[in-house]
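Record 1 of the preview.
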Amino acid sequence: MTPARSLLSQFDPTLPLDRARTIPASWYHDLDWAAAERSKVFGNSWQCVGRVDQVKAAGDYLTADVAGDPVLVIRGEDGVLRGFFNVCRHRAAPLCTDACGSATKLRCRYHGWTYDLAGRLKGTPEFDDVAEFEKADNGLVPLGGTAVWGPFVWVHLGEPRQSLPEFLDPIPAWVESRGGFGDLAWFGRRSYDLACNWKVY
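->
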């Protein structure tokens, strides 16, 4: 039994209310449990990573961290919004290090591998004579899903079992019944580090 499964077995969600218990304290501090949550909860669901106004034009991109994985969302020359793991296929260096910006191509600073805005590998300096290497097989690794709801960009690392509207239901209908996002505009960002488990927050 894996450590996470062992921890999971310590809680019985089927108990009737008069015999119910809170989740075990270890679920708030155990490192194996935290890794399992990161993978199964955040890495296996739709996550909001930015705003549509950050990726309006071809070449506009934003970066984020989802469940410990670096992601990149970029608007292609064809107008399509695509999500990739923000990792060069050569030595796993990040392609884009800023939170957002604009680029005509994606070039790794480590060895110069270059990708187009659709994630296709185009340039591999000093790599031309490598046997059995095909650029077409070494494009950026796409995310499982990239979608937009209102002014927000969402991604899914794996294979989504639900579309974004299904995942968000009934929130979109509730928002629309109250006028939608209307003239909602970006104002600013505030970040706070909280010394607590996400379940407590």
